[in-house]
């Protein structure tokens, strides 16, 4: 839990620095965050390579776990549809389109803004950022109360990059491969599901 709070604290500090221009360097067109992410992934790769038990656990991984991303997609869309049924201004399809971002806030918000307007696009941006933050902040609680696969499902499309280190820490290195696979599949589905749900009209 402490590690998650530290990560979120750095995010908040970075946001405040950007809002108040506390750092003179302009990160808008910089690829610094991309390089930092690459470095992070490199470190995760080293930790996997140094632990032969991780690769052994992948070979003995239950084949049914390949259905985890499918269950994540179905569960998210079903939950959003139910939530949308109780909203007066937004219908189930709008809520499902927002949920179909699966934490991939940059891409999904652009698509939704283009199809549905800036208001829903902003909602998509904030809700998907919150999904990622919840995965980072609540990973230890999710593991404790719902099992080691819970942070992976909650992380959505982010489980192969930004939330992977926290998942590795609390779920274990044996879940790294399934986490990356889960993130890849869910990430790949985002543009197709978002555009499909946005294009449906009654």
TrEMBL record:
InterPro entries: LysO (IPR005642). Coiled coil: none annotated. One of its GO terms (cellular component) is plasma membrane. One of its GO terms (molecular function) is L-lysine efflux transmembrane transporter activity. It holds the Pfam family Lys_export. It comes from the Bacteria. Keywords: Membrane, Transmembrane, Transmembrane helix. The chain crosses the membrane at residues 6-25, 32-50, 65-86, 93-112, 175-197. PANTHER family: LYSINE EXPORTER LYSO. This is Lysine exporter LysO family protein.
